[in-house]
Write a structure and sequence with these properties.
By secondary structure, the protein is α+β, with helices and mostly antiparallel strands. Among the domains are: 201 residues, FAD/NAD(P)-binding domain (3-Layer(bba) Sandwich), CATH 3.50.50; 65 residues, no CATH class. 34% of the residues lie in helices and 22% in strands. α1 runs parallel beside α5 and α8 packs antiparallel against α9. The protein is globular. The two termini are 38 Å apart.
């Protein structure tokens, strides 16, 4: 089957990112997006991983100046975890735990052990600890590096994507789908409430949790992640910024029956309590949420199921984003999953000259499945080793949470500590978290490991001097507010941070 016409179902961030990626890589394709504004979008503040800016500005070539003026992102240097036995630990997008300084002789993670401090372990962590977005260069300009992600207001972000898609030639159809027809080959048409029946060669399902085409129509089996990830609800709220400084990181704070996010925007602070309905009622979850966040105004409940469909590409339907799989936003993986799935789809079609071939579909499904399974295992580590609270929920997680694909990684760490010698053999090539992400969690949560020779006093003194150098560099940096004023100046010259890459290769951000 040759693909000439593509119909994207759903007009949220998944729908428009998929449409833009396909049109950018294969400009000859006829790409349309059908969406109903009656359905709307989830509309919460969104945090991302470093994959998003790498795709937006690297592969897609979206101008940074235009993006900052219209989409109004705020920089995210990582995640601050109020988690485990430490007061907090940072998972920055730099490489503080796997870096090996010559004078120390082993990776830095060894010096952030049970006795050693974890603050200022790298420049990223030092900037986060002093609420700075960037270090300062000798010429007074911000020292920008590609190890960043974004905080985005969903409505503003989708509006930007919609405008950009139209400029590329993507057609937008405003209507509601009332019936989906199919035969043995797959979807044959989408009947609209106020228009004709739409047909295409390939249908991209970006309908979110509904999974209109893949789940509801084609009945693809669903693989739940319930044995690893217990949470299934989120209380969502926020408030307009008053005098709070803008934080250049996402916060993940341990709660009685789950955790609470904080996502900072320029004018808004977004909060949400992800929790497990088997351990707490919606009313009690909201009460706990409001006790922690007295400025919150209106709230709402978002219900979800963690897991993925067995295959993402079935017949002539490809699911992108929440319609193919979903996990809670503990590591802000949603937008990154959308980006890599869109890249892999566009790469497969481009290399096969728009011909759909069984082996390409098979490998696409394998790749997408492995990506979701890696996310599952990585998130499970957060629950298995968080000893901050001894509530029934957290005791259950510690005792029973299934590490799934992360089991071997944890076993290696418990036997060898922050050694990086064999990580390349443990991780899939597409695992977005890399060894650094796993080390941040395992070291940060003080997961015990076997060590024969602890760091010497001389090594610890050297480590303290290294930490001080990071702390001093960060202290001279740019706050988020100062950095935003700087980049909005017409005289500011944006640096080229992301290489122009073809889609399909692993997207590395650190």
């Amino acid at each position: 089957m040759l693909v000439k016409r593509v119909m994207v179902v759903g007009g949220g961030s998944a729908g428009f990112l998929a449409a833009i990626t396909l049109k950018a890589r294969l400009p000859h394709l006829d790409v349309s997006v059908v969406r109903s504004k009656e359905i709307g979008i989830i509309g919460v503040g969104e945090a991302s991983t470093g994959i998003l800016p790498a795709v937006l500005h690297g592969y897609l070539g979206i101008d940074q100046r235009e993006f900052y003026l219209k989409a109004e992102p705020v920089w995210k240097l990582g995640i601050r975890f109020l988690w485990g036995s430490r007061s907090y630990f940072d998972y920055s997008f730099a490489t503080p735990f796997s870096t090996q300084f010559p004078q120390l002789g082993r990776p830095s993670g060894y010096f952030c052990d049970h006795e050693g401090p974890i603050e200022y372990a790298g420049l990223g962590s030092a900037l986060m600890s002093q609420n700075m977005a960037f270090a300062r260069k000798a010429d007074g300009q911000p020292f920008m590096q590609p190890q960043i992600a974004y905080h985005l207001e969903n409505v503003t972000f989708v509006s930007f994507l919609e405008d950009y898609a139209q400029r590329l030639g993507v057609r937008i159809i405003e209507d509601r789908i009332v019936e989906v027809t199919q035969d043995d080959s797959g979807i044959t048409g989408l009947k609209l409430l106020n228009g004709p029946t739409l047909t295409a060669d390939l249908y991209v399902d970006c309908s979110g949790f509904v999974s209109l085409l893949l789940g509801k129509t084609l009945k693809e089996p669903f693989i739940p992640f319930a044995s690893s990830l217990y949470c299934d609800r989120a209380v969502v709220g926020g408030w307009w910024r008053e005098d709070e400084p803008i934080q250049p990181y996402t916060t993940a704070e341990t709660m009685d029956c789950g955790w609470c996010w904080r996502i900072d925007h320029e004018k808004l602070i977004n909060r949400g309590y992800v929790h497990c309905s088997a351990f707490i009622s919606e009313a009690d979850a909201e009460a706990e949420f409001r006790r922690k966040n007295p400025k919150v105004k209106e709230t709402r409940i978002v219900k979800y199921v963690s897991g993925r469909y067995q295959r993402a590409w079935v017949k002539n339907v490809v699911a992108i984003g929440n319609s193919g799989g979903f996990v809670e936003p503990l590591e802000s993986t949603g937008l990154g999953a959308i980006c890599v799935e869109s890249l892999w789809l566009s790469a497969g079609l481009a290399e096969m000259e728009s011909e759909v071939r069984p082996t390409v579909k098979k490998l696409f499904n394998r790749r997408v499945g492995r990506n979701w399974d890696a996310i599952r295992g990585f998130l499970a580590i957060h629950y298995k080793f968080n000893t901050r609270l001894n509530t029934p929920f957290w005791i259950e997680c510690q005792q029973k949470a299934d590490l799934a694909g992360a089991t071997e990684i944890v076993e290696y760490f418990q036997e060898n500590g922050p050694s990086i010698q064999w990580w390349i053999s443990l991780l899939d090539a597409d695992d977005q978290f890399t060894s650094e992400g796993y080390l941040a969690l395992l070291v940060g949560q003080r997961v015990p490991y076997r060590i024969l020779t602890p760091p010497s006093q001389e090594q610890r003194a050297i480590w303290e001097r290294i930490r001080k150098s990071f702390r001093d560099a960060a202290a001279r940096g740019f706050t988020v507010e100062e950095a935003l004023r700087t980049v909005k100046s017409p005289d500011f010259k944006w640096p080229e941070l992301w290489a122009k890459v073809l889609p399909g290769a692993p997207v590395r951000t650190s």
